[in-house]
Amino acid sequence: MKLLIKGAAILTMRHDAPFTGDILIDGSRIADIQPAIRDAGADEVIHAEGMAAMPGLINAHQHTPMSLLRGFSDDLKLMDWLEKKMFPAEARMTPEDIYWGAKLAMAEMIRSGTTAFADMYIHMNEIAAAVEETGMRASLTRGLVFTEDDGGRRMAEALDLIKRWSGKAEGRITTMLGPHSPYTVPPELWREVIRLAEQEDIPIHTHLAETVEEVALIRERYNQTPTEYLYHLGLFEKAHVLLAHSVHLNRRDIGYLRGMRGGAAHNPVSNLKLGCGIAPVSEMTEQGIAVGIGTDGAGSAATLDMFEEIRAAAWLQKLDYGDPAKLPAMEALRMATAGSASVLGIADEVGTLEAGKKADLILIDLRKPHLQPVHNLPSLLAYCAVGADVDTTIVNGRVLMRGRRLLTIDEDELLAQVSKRARRIVEGI
Ligand SMILES: N[C@@H](CCSC[C@H]1O[C@@H](n2cnc3c(=O)[nH]cnc32)[C@H](O)[C@@H]1O)C(=O)O
Ligand SMILES: [Zn+2]
């Protein structure tokens, strides 16, 4: 199957300058990108004049089924929100709830131009099945909270996910191990997970230094910063690591991360909304540490719109430094694409538009008052566009949304399932 996209304003993210041209997709990969591709023998042509083409956005940190908990308990401190609201609600979720919650998140992501995401949650078989059906790309992790002895059940589920789903769904699914955080996993279990990750070469997805309360707690328990603590456990030396949040890192902490495989997933809207702080993303990138962008679950963030997240990331750095030159448009867009791809460990395959890479890309309709005139395409995409401007979403060469119509998800059925289930889950909490 050959698909030809014609006449788009293309931002490859490999080069800074956009150009008008064509993209030829052959099967799951980009076959060619040129100002004009002639006689490609395409089975299908998308006329994209007036649209921008860019790599699909990659949401580097998510808890997809938490979309069922959107708006249920806002304006609380993180620890209260987690322990009093989220954990009890999660304990009530059935595998079917998880499936529909994950699908709700995927519908929203496809609609707002996200093509891949990193997910940490429970009942991962159901999430994997939803990924297989919706056609998205995902890095899946069974979150491991070890606050009680569960006889090894969580760990067994984590390993089962990896064995069963790694490389599946035409290679769209990858997996990681998910020790939840420095404060929910005791040191002996951290050591066990790190040993396993090193032995089997499995990446690790965790939360790091999200709040000042976490920093105080780890100081009290281990007399270290959260980053120092994980560093001394050998984490950054022994595994590829995805570090969600990474807000409270001092200069020494950043030094511990230098040379790490993986990187940080910046979640600016969630950090703003929970009042957590501003992650030192400019300092991390200056030290050569990869930084991607994520939304976190819709329970703590509000939406899964990565365009809002890109904007928030840029604005926070400018505000933090009192300098509008910090995190310019192109760098913010790169963070949400190639940066996230590095953090997920899939940068060889996605994150830029290049011949030979997987065809994960989006078309954004620029023929709108808030996206005209086109003086500077990166500026428009980083500072003016919203998810609803995405016209077409393509993953692995397959069109998942065209003309804002979802092609792999029955939205009527989805919304009916969601409202019924969401009400039951939160009743009385
Ligand atoms: N509680 C589960 C395992 C954890 S899955 C991942 C967890 O991350 C939680 N989570 C979501 N957002 C955040 C955040 O911003 N910081 C810390 N944890 C979060 C989420 O509520 C979920 O419980 C069990 O009993 O096995
Ligand atoms: Zn999270």
TrEMBL record:
Ranges for domain Amidohydrolase-related come to 53-399
Cofactor binding comment, as recorded: Binds 1 zinc ion per subunit.
What keywords were assigned to this record? Answer: Hydrolase, Metal-binding, Zinc
Cofactor section: Zn(2+)
Give the main EC class: hydrolase
> What's the EC number here?
3.5.4.28, 3.5.4.31
Q: Give me the residues that bind substrate, please.
A: 90, 142, 153, 180, 210, 296
**Span of the secretion signal?**
none
Q: Which GO terms describe its molecular function?
A: 5'-methylthioadenosine deaminase activity; metal ion binding; S-adenosylhomocysteine deaminase activity
Residues noted as binding Zn(2+) in the record, renumbered to the chain: 61, 63, 207, 296
UniProt keyword Hydrolase present: yes
Q: Which reaction does it catalyse?
A: S-adenosyl-L-homocysteine + H2O + H(+) = S-inosyl-L-homocysteine + NH4(+); S-methyl-5'-thioadenosine + H2O + H(+) = S-methyl-5'-thioinosine + NH4(+)
Keyword Cytoplasm among UniProt keywords: no
Q: What does this protein do?
A: Catalyzes the deamination of 5-methylthioadenosine and S-adenosyl-L-homocysteine into 5-methylthioinosine and S-inosyl-L-homocysteine, respectively. Is also able to deaminate adenosine.
Similarity section: Belongs to the metallo-dependent hydrolases superfamily. MTA/SAH deaminase family.
Name the UniProt record assigns to this protein: 5-methylthioadenosine/S-adenosylhomocysteine deaminase
User: Which species?
Assistant: Thermobacillus composti (strain DSM 18247 / JCM 13945 / KWC4)
